[in-house]
Amino acid sequence: MDWLMLIAAGCCEMLGVAMLGRLQRDRNWQTFGLFLLGFGGSLLLLSQAMKTLPMGTAYAVWTGIGASGGAVLGMLLYGEGRELRRIICIVMILGAAVGLKLLG
């Protein structure tokens, strides 16, 4: 259950990042509310997951999901570059997060 909360925390982080990008274009209460919901939910779920998971592992996985998810969302929603080198780096981040889970 802790790993599911950690993955959900990473997904909420991605929502917060996506809404941060959207706030640059659309300054309205709905976007701001989703921004707060994303980052607030992310921190809440992370803190719950860290009650039983090691802090270093939980934080590394959470930031890995958020960073790689944010990069993918940037490619899909905001037209950021899709070079092979960039995609390989995203895969390496996710691979490191999976490695931490397998070792921890």
TrEMBL record:
InterPro entries: EmrE-like (IPR037185), Small_drug/metabolite_transptr (IPR000390), Small_multidrug_res (IPR045324). SUPFAM superfamilies: Multidrug resistance efflux transporter EmrE. One of its GO terms (cellular component) is plasma membrane. Its main location: membrane. It is found in: Cell membrane. The keyword Cell membrane applies. Pfam families: Multi_Drug_Res (PF00893). It is a multi-pass membrane protein. GO terms for molecular function: transmembrane transporter activity. This is Paired small multidrug resistance pump.
